[in-house]
């Protein structure tokens, strides 16, 4: 028998996210946004916060990636069955899409912490008998389909999610929207404020947006307006209907089209970006609003390699739920840090050998680059000058890549194709490997197992970046453009190294690719490679600093304490 009703005891924070990445066997995430959501939930459980999370079931997942022998990405569905591992809730919600009734059900996953904390996560699902065929597939593909499909999903997430929580009997202290995908929930809340007014000339006063604002917290993740979801109003009227009249929707969501970020900004009392710089950039994009910044984190226990888990647990028994203790990393002898890292490297190289047949050399400095493949991340930057790369790195470096491009992102797919093209050119001189199907499982092998973590996005487009925090936790120093979290974590030569100049201003005009490329090669040649090969104690010092000066702070426990004190209890 289910005891889920115990979650109803206290008023909760309701965390809404289009994607949530808790583990690789629930493939309902595409990248950093979803994994942040998963790590947030795990930290909330560690801290025993009263929280509930809502997302979509995405039964066909994001997608499974393979690479064909021409070097092109191929996609196939990555299906999972909630019925096999989750518990179906006894309550359904009814929503209206294109004037049809659509039933929404919810699957419960319990996220438990060793502290005894527990956070329920609800996966919303429209694949229910009685729903029309076309509606049963709404919760199939994460970020699949067209604008119309996306709008339907966002109705399920925002409005369906709010109704399911109400139906189950939750009392909500705050609604936290993780990115604009969930903004339609504000319309559901707005309609709950509706009251009759005597004078029909005064219809606007039937709704009370201020009441909604008091209930909502909004975290924006995208530093460019083009990245924000927008829908034409004729589509909105046809799919969503007009429970909230058009004049009011336009007032709150934008004059010309429904902008989900605008809607969330207008209806949230607390708004934040995901790193200090990203807060500033977002403030410049939306001058009329007050935008704060809470820098992202990672959930340490999830992202430490088994070797590091063992080592940290020996020296700091409660480090998993109290990662601040990592500030004392200097009490661990160098040799033990080095051996734990060598263990993670060996496991990774074994995986590489099994999946690709390539035998990498554990003595060689191995550079990792893995994340969603989007053009702004410049995955192929290190190949800008092959002559120079060979001069600097011949027989001295190995490169490991991984990452998926969105199925509609042709330029992203070309980047993968280019990287794979370099493999042949460099064979015998610099070993380059592209690993297929980057997901949480591969990330947890790859990131701890390389020696140096590379990141070279176009500034200021990396809102935060979290893979670098996972690297730091495992004693893998960052070598990165100063953007996102690295502006806060970087101390040159101490915690890692930067590529190119400090950030200047909030526009992408500050990028000079030539300068970045030159700096990348120069630092590898003159600082990083000599340190790695000729001064091992110096290298281990940087590894320890990554742990003691980055990872002790850039984690979801510290981050959640800030959300609690600055956002949830305001
Ligand atoms: C951490 C993680 C990301 C985020 O990487 P960034 O470099 O911050 O963009 C993306 N995908 C997976 C599988 C991850 O584990």
From TrEMBL:
Essential cofactor(s): pyridoxal 5'-phosphate
SUPFAM superfamilies documented for this protein: UDP-Glycosyltransferase/glycogen phosphorylase
Sorted UniProt keywords: Carbohydrate metabolism, Glycosyltransferase, Pyridoxal phosphate, Transferase
EC number: 2.4.1.1
Source superkingdom: Bacteria
GO molecular function, one term: glycogen phosphorylase activity
Catalytic activity: [(1->4)-alpha-D-glucosyl](n) + phosphate = [(1->4)-alpha-D-glucosyl](n-1) + alpha-D-glucose 1-phosphate
Matching InterPro entries: Agluc_phsphrylas, Glyco_trans_35, Glycogen/Maltodextrin_Phosph, Pyridoxal_P_attach_site
UniProt key word Glycosyltransferase: yes
A biological-process GO annotation: carbohydrate metabolic process
One Pfam family, short name: Phosphorylase
Keyword hit for Glycosyltransferase: yes
PANTHER family per the UniProt record, alphabetical: GLYCOGEN PHOSPHORYLASE
Record-stated family: Belongs to the glycogen phosphorylase family.
Role played: Phosphorylase is an important allosteric enzyme in carbohydrate metabolism. Enzymes from different sources differ in their regulatory mechanisms and in their natural substrates. However, all known phosphorylases share catalytic and structural properties.
NCBIfam families the UniProt entry points to: more_P_ylases
Name of the protein this chain belongs to: glycogen phosphorylase
Source organism of this protein record: Syntrophotalea acetylenivorans
């Amino acid at each position: 028998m289910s005891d889920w009703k115990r979650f109803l005891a206290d008023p909760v924070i309701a965390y809404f996210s289009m994607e949530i990445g808790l583990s690789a066997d629930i493939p309902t995430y595409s990248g950093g946004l979803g994994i942040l959501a998963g790590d947030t939930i795990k930290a909330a459980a560690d801290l025993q916060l009263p929280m509930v999370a809502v997302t979509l079931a995405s039964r066909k997942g994001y997608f499974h990636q393979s690479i064909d022998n021409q070097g092109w990405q191929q996609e196939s569905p990555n299906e999972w069955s909630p019925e096999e591992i989750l518990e179906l809730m006894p309550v359904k919600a009814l929503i209206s899409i294109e004037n049809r009734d659509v039933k929404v059900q919810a699957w419960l996953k319990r996220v438990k912490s060793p502290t005894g904390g527990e956070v329920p996560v609800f996966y919303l699902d429209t694949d229910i008998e009685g729903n029309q065929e076309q509606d049963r597939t709404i919760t199939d593909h994460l970020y699949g389909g067209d604008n119309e499909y996306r709008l339907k999903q966002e109705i399920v997430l925002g409005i369906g999610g709010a109704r399911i929580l109400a139906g189950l009997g939750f009392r909500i202290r705050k609604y936290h929207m993780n990115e604009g995908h969930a903004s339609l929930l504000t319309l559901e809340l707005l309609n709950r404020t509706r009251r009759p007014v005597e004078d029909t000339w005064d219809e606007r006063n039937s709704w009370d947006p201020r009441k909604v604002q008091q209930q909502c917290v909004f975290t924006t993740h995208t530093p460019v307006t083009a990245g924000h979801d927008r829908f034409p109003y004729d589509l909105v009227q046809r799919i969503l209907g007009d429970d909230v009249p058009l004049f009011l929707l336009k007032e709150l969501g934008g004059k010309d089209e429904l902008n989900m970020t605008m809607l969330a900004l207008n209806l949230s009392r607390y708004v934040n970006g995901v790193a200090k710089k990203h807060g500033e950039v977002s403030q410049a994009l939306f001058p009329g609003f007050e935008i704060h910044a809470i820098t992202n984190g990672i959930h340490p226990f999830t992202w430490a390699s088994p070797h590091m888990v063992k080592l940290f647990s020996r020296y700091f028994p409660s480090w998993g739920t109290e990662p601040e203790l990592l500030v004392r990393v200097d009490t661990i002898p160098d040799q033990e840090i080095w051996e734990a890292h060598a263990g993670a490297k060996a496991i990774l190289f074994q995986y590489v050998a099994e999946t690709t047949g390539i035998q990498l050399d554990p003595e060689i400095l191995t550079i990792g680059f893995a994340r969603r493949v989007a053009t702004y991340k410049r995955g192929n930057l290190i190949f800008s000058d092959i002559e120079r790369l060979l001069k600097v790195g011949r027989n001295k470096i190995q490169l490991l890549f991984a990452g998926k491009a969105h199925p509609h992102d042709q330029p992203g797919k070309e980047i993968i194709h280019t990287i794979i093209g370099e493999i042949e050119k460099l064979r015998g001189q610099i070993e380059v490997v592209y690993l297929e199907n980057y997901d949480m499982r591969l990330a947890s092998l790859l990131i701890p197992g390389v020696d140096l973590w590379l990141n070279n996005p176009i500034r200021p487009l990396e809102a935060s970046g979290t893979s670098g925090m996972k690297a730091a936790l495992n004693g893998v120093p960052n070598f990165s453009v100063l953007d996102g979290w690295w502006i806060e974590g970087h101390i040159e030569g101490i915690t890692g190294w930067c590529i190119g100049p400090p950030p200047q201003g909030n526009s992408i005009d500050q990028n000079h690719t030539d300068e970045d490329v030159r700096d990348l090669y120069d630092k590898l040649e003159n600082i990083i490679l000599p340190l790695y090969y000729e001064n091992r104690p110096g290298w281990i010092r940087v590894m320890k600093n990554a742990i003691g000066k980055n990872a002790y702070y850039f984690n979801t426990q510290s981050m959640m304490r800030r959300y609690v004190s600055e956002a949830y209890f305001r």
